[in-house]
Specification:
By secondary structure, the protein is an all-alpha fold. It has one domain: Up-down Bundle (Growth Hormone, Chain: A). Helices cover 76% and strands 0% of the residues. It contains 15 helices and no strands. Helix 10 packs antiparallel against helix 15 and helix 12 packs antiparallel against helix 15. The N terminus and C terminus are likely disordered.
């Protein structure tokens, strides 16, 4: 009887299998931590305009409809940046794309301090959004590719929780700046912090093994082994045989038969749910100021919404070890619908508003975090940044639509209760789209 061949160990495997099966080394954990911090920076940069919005409206005397457009300009930039720069990251690498995005973000925040009109500020925020959108696509791919199989869902979910973390820390600073200064001080702070991340990313972030493996240049194995050595893993002896059906880094691959259903449903889910998410995040300060509270206290309510978001992200992250992430996302979106509707009923005190905003943030952000974990599993390495970028980019149409639609509804005479109920329905549509995914035929379960 012929003896069975010895079991293949991680040490004998191709580079990606080795990384997936081995314990995570300190530098891998540090890369994940850096990605969390970069996503936190995104969180502050996106919401900087929300913290500043009462001061902008007061200084330039603009109505809610015009303010809604300004609030959405960087979201439109994010949509375009996610699609274009996410695909670029699959072609030139995650590391150079991240560095380029940081330059755009720091420059955009600095330019916002010089804006002298609504039009100029809107254009500057659009430019800033290009970098923010590209960063979101890159960090999701980086965390998925530097994590091992056991901790990948947790790592991606924690990375996504960096977004509310940045809003909490940055928002607390913004509230202090608004109490003693002008809305422009918020952007000065954002520019300084964004620029500070450039040297950190330059020295700490290597190119991912997954990117080198899928590009397959003549020196790919040499570059991969250099990264493995830096991470503290043994060298790989050969690259894995690539399947003939492996997708190429292109938009067309996202609509091939194996990925078409996931691409469409995930885009729809993200579009609808993120519309609800950004209605809450973008309009809280203005809604609270219109109730008669000062801008600094309105910023505090938004901070509490993000505290809830961080707690929701953290809980979902750890539940992924026990419960399929798809079902967690569906549950979060259903409860999100309820809580955003309740927020629209109003509260008698500032504390009551903060509590309901925190609960709404808990479930809306849990849904967003869970979607990021699904993206990382639904798209293979070859199109991971591009696929994530496409879903986020097209989905950001919902992010841009949310504040604009709410602004025009308010201007048309609808009350907060009616506007909140309409905007909350996006989460319910998102839950239906996630339910229609086929976990048995894709990686997202």
């Amino acid at each position: 009887m012929t003896p069975s061949p010895p079991a293949r160990t991680a040490r004998d495997s191709d580079p990606q299998t080795l990384l997936a099966q081995s314990p995570m080394k300190p530098l891998q954990i540090l890369v994940v931590a850096l990605s969390i911090a970069l996503n936190a920076l995104d969180g502050f940069d996106v919401l900087a305009i929300s913290f500043a919005s009462p001061g902008i409206a007061s200084e330039w005397g603009i109505d809610r409809g015009a303010l809604g457009i300004v609030l959405s300009m960087e979201l439109i930039g994010m949509a375009i940046g996610s699609i274009l720069l996410g695909n670029l990251a699959d072609r030139i690498g995650r590391r150079p794309t991240v560095l380029g995005c940081l330059i755009v973000m720091a420059g955009g925040m600095a330019l916002a301090t010089l804006a002298s009109s609504v039009t100029m500020l809107g254009l500057i925020r659009f430019f800033t959004g290009l970098g923010i959108g590209g960063m979101l696509a890159c960090t999701n791919a980086i965390v998925a590719e530097f994590s091992n199989a056991r901790h990948r869902n947790l790592a991606v979910a924690i990375m996504a929780s960096g977004y509310p973390m940045g809003a909490i820390l940055g928002g607390s600073m913004a509230s202090s700046l608004l109490a003693d200064g002008s809305w422009r001080d918020v952007f000065v702070f954002g520019a300084i912090v964004s620029a500070a991340f450039l040297p950190l990313a330059w020295f700490l972030l290597p190119e991912s093994i997954g990117f080198h493996d899928q590009r397959r240049r003549p020196d790919a194995l040499e570059k991969i082994n250099a990264v493995l050595a830096r991470l503290g893993h043994p060298p790989a002896h050969a690259l894995a045989t690539r399947a003939q059906s492996a997708p190429k880094a292109s938009f067309a691959a996202l609509f091939a038969p194996g990925l078409l259903r996931s691409t469409i449903l995930l885009t729809l889910a993200y579009f609808c749910h993120i519309m609800t998410f950004y209605f809450i995040l973008k309009w809280i300060p203005k809604i609270v100021v219109d109730m008669g509270y000062p801008a600094s206290q309105a910023g505090g309510v938004l901070v509490w919404a993000n505290v809830g978001g961080l707690l929701g992200a953290s809980l979902l992250s750890f539940l992924t070890y026990r419960i399929p992430v798809r079902w967690l996302v569906i549950a979060a979106m259903v409860v999100s619908t309820v809580m955003v509707t309740v927020f629209g009923q109003g509260q008698a005190t500032l504390g009551g508003l903060a509590t309901i905003a925190g609960a709404a943030g808990f479930f809306t952000n849990a849904g967003v975090v869970g979607l990021y974990a699904i993206f990382a599993r639904a798209f293979p390495t070859e199109v991971r940044a591009g696929g994530t970028g496409f879903v986020i980019g097209v989905g950001r149409g919902g992010a841009a639509l949310g504040p604009i639609l709410a602004g025009f509804l308010f201007t048309a005479g609808f009350g907060l209760a009616e506007v909140a109920m309409l905007m909350a329905s996006g989460s319910m549509f998102g839950a239906v789209a996630v339910f229609l995914l086929r976990p048995g035929r894709n990686r997202e379960a």
